Amino acid sequence: MKGIVFTELLDMVEGRFGMNMVDDILDDSKLSSGGAYTTVGTYDYKELLNIVSNLSHKTKIPVKDLVYTYGHHLFSRFHALMPQFFVGKNTCFDFLQSVDRYIHVEVKKLYPDASLPRFKTDMADHKTLVMTYMSQCPFADFAHGLIQGCIDFYQEKITIEAKDNNTPEEYSRIFTLKKNG
Ligand code: HEM
Which atom of ligand 1 lies nearest, measured to the CA of 78? Predict the structure, then answer.
């Protein structure tokens, strides 16, 4: 997993819980990287889960909720860090449909060793987008937080229903997004 996912997580933890919490959760983790992340480095995704699990232990917030919250937080950072991906994406559905066919394609060009999820998107009707997450990594809650972050960014009235669809080969979750009104 790319270092930027780690550095942004640690920035969020510092902002919400303080620098001491960052030190504590890194000290508690048996990290092969030693906890010194650079944005362009590549690290085992299990280290991220290890850090989040320590944070969960200290804050008593379930891992699932922390991973979701991190996804939600990260979406607002995307706009600040990479405004180019938002050009011409006028609605939440426009943006979400561009993740697999454009954004993650560009990410892969930039970081050939990135390990990215795949998303299948289908408009079931003009108000319903079905977005299926598929990955070798167990980050469906992260995807859920990012998608909710996208809805909130565009300030649209959209509800999400999520249904796990894991197979022995991969992690998968089906998100059904319905526009209200
Ligand atoms: C709502 C929009 C998005 C969703 C739902 C999404 C979803 C995800 C998820 C779930 C992962 C974790 C890896 C996995 O599960 O296999 C991931 C990784 C990543 N995504 Fe996205 N993403 C979104 C938008 C973006 C944008 C705008 C960028 C900006 C460039 C981006 C860049 C990345 C990068 C760099 C990684 C790390 C890859 C790695 O660690 O090897 N994503 N994305």
Answer: 27
- Atom 19 of ligand 1, nearest CA residue: 116
User: For residue range 118-154, what is the model confidence (pLDDT) as tens digits?
Assistant: 999 999 999 999 999 999 999 999 999 999 999 999 9
Query: Which helix (H) or strand (E) segment is 90 a member of?
Result: none
Residue 67 lies in a domain: no
Classify residue 106: in a domain, yes or no: yes
Q: Is the domain of 94 the same as that of 166?
A: yes
Domain of 132 in residue numbering reads as: 89-179
Cα–Cα distance, 119 to 142 (Å, whole number): 13
The pLDDT of residue 30: 74
Atom 23, ligand 1: which residue's CA is nearest?
A: 99
